[in-house]
Specification:
The protein is of the alpha/beta class. It has helices at residues 5-14, 22-33, 47-57, 75-88, 103-110, 121-129, 146-151, 155-164, 217-226, 239-251, 265-276, 310-317, 377-386, 414-421; strands spanning 36-40, 68-71, 94-97, 116-119, 140-143, 170-175, 192-195, 204-211, 232-235, 257-259, 282-285, 300-303, 327-334, 347-348, 362-367, 398-400, 405-410, 424-426, 429-431, 433-435. Helix 2 runs parallel beside helix 3.
């Protein structure tokens, strides 16, 4: 059945959302009525749901091939959107494909075509050219984070895809920053523009932390000890900077995970899983984490190194103070350093290390069974409650993947749980349970 108002209310309930925000309401109205739309809104304001709801309402459940193609600049964003669609529970099948993932997995997933395909341009071009996917029924194309797609060098691939999509009638472009010029190959004639980028994040505080040392490492450690009961991202500009910061944090016994482009895809995914479920509260990352990844609300972000342009500063800051929650962006500054003009309305912050109670320490367990084995989150929770004898407060976030699952549990109970639950049966599958290192 088509997604109607009643279905939309059910979807919002499943996602734990009381109501759409003003940007999402406006996007719903415009995308429903127009075939060419440019949606501009700050990071973290819910652009994915803003375009999915009106597009799904116009899809035809009787068609068994791909109807909606969503192009994205990164693997993480592809995975995130696929997860959102699954959680919506609309009845439309979705699959994500991207570079770094085994082509054989793609072929298996696409054997039964999804209604919605999400992917990076390079992998989508490969599948079109190798005739792995049928594009004849694709009537809607979304270019998500379009500015980033161009920035990371997918111009030729996007051009080739658009030229081959003969049935497309609706195009939606999204971005968290202004798009000054749309390339001719996108073939937009008279797009409607929705611009919420000027919405001020009133809940965001920007604070300057002055370091007497040029490397700022000592100031970073003191600041992290100050905010240690909270979760946040430390932004660096380079992989070498991440290595330097990470090495110091290990020496100082400050738990964290790293996230940057040079990591293996599996390591990146697992780093985000551990960060999302609270195993680690600090993510040390490049601007790859500034947008397009699925992470919870941040209490703070730290600019260990400042980005070269104002847009990236805004994207980073958009990771905190999202959806009307409060947040703080700390700027680490060497005392002789001059800050760029895009940093204003900031106050100096003097680090004082308060007495803070240590939060509960979590670890992540890996389970060798997932959706393809018909295993649900409820099945996993039941195993940990009934056989593992866990209380509600001791079962953390469960993440269910296609062929595995991850569960956060208190560190002090992990060995006992592994001993009790390893080689248990979930549905018809005997699963291995081990510590994710």
């Amino acid at each position: 059945m088509k997604v109607n108002q009643k279905d939309e209310n059910a979807i919002l309930q499943k996602l734990g959302i009381d109501a759409l925000n003003p940007m999402q309401i406006k996007a719903h109205e415009v995308i429903s009525q127009h075939n060419e739309v440019i949606l501009l809104a700050n990071t973290g304001t819910g652009k994915t749901l803003a375009f999915l709801l009106p597009i799904m309402a116009q899809m035809d459940p009787a068609i068994s091939d791909i109807q909606l193609l969503i192009l994205v600049p990164s693997r993480e964003l592809a995975i995130q959107i696929e997860q959102v669609i699954r959680e919506m529970g609309s009845g439309y099948k979705a699959n994500a494909v991207y570079g770094g993932r085994a082509g054989t997995k793609d072929k298996m997933d696409l054997k039964h075509p999804p209604s919605i395909l999400v992917g990076t341009p390079g992998r989508i071009v490969d599948h079109i050219n190798n005739e792995i996917i049928d594009i004849s029924c694709i009537k809607t194309l979304v270019l998500d984070e379009f500015d980033k797609i161009l920035e990371v060098g997918f111009v030729e691939e996007v051009k080739e895809i658009i030229l081959k999509l003969r049935a497309v009638r609706k195009k939606v472009l999204t971005s968290a920053t202004q798009i000054n010029e749309i390339p001719p190959f996108v073939n937009l004639k008279n797009p409607m523009r929705i611009d919420f980028t000027q919405e001020v994040i009133k809940e965001l505080k920007i604070k300057i932390v002055v370091s007497k040392n040029k490397d700022k490492l000592g100031a970073l450690v003191k600041l992290l000890r100050t905010v240690k009961s909270q979760s946040g991202i430390v932004f660096c500009n380079f992989k070498n900077s991440i290595s330097l910061v990470s090495e110091l944090l290990y020496k100082q016994k400050i738990g964290h995970v790293c996230f940057y482009g040079g990591m293996e895809q599996m390591d990146r995914e697992r780093a985000l899983i551990k960060f999302r479920n609270g195993t680690y509260r600090i993510l040390v990352a490049t601007d790859l984490a500034a947008r397009g990844i699925d992470v919870p609300e941040m209490d703070y972000i730290i600019h260990y190194e400042l980005p070269p342009i104002a847009e990236e500063f805004l994207h980073r800051n958009g990771r905190t103070a999202r959806m009307h929650a409060e947040g703080t962006a700390y700027v680490l500054k060497w005392e002789n350093q001059t800050l760029p003009p895009f940093i204003h309305k900031a106050e100096e912050f003097e680090i004082q290390t308060p007495e803070v109670s240590e939060p509960k320490k979590w670890v992540t367990l890996h389970i060798t069974g997932g959706r393809k084995d018909k295993i649900s989150k409820g099945d996993i929770a039941g195993l940990f409650f009934k056989t593992g004898k866990l209380n509600n407060s001791d079962l953390g976030v469960i993440e269910l993947k296609q062929d595995c699952a991850y569960v956060a549990v208190p560190a002090k109970l992990s060995d006992e749980l592994i001993e009790k639950l390893n080689n248990s049966r979930l549905k018809k599958k005997k699963v291995r349970i081990s510590l994710l290192r």
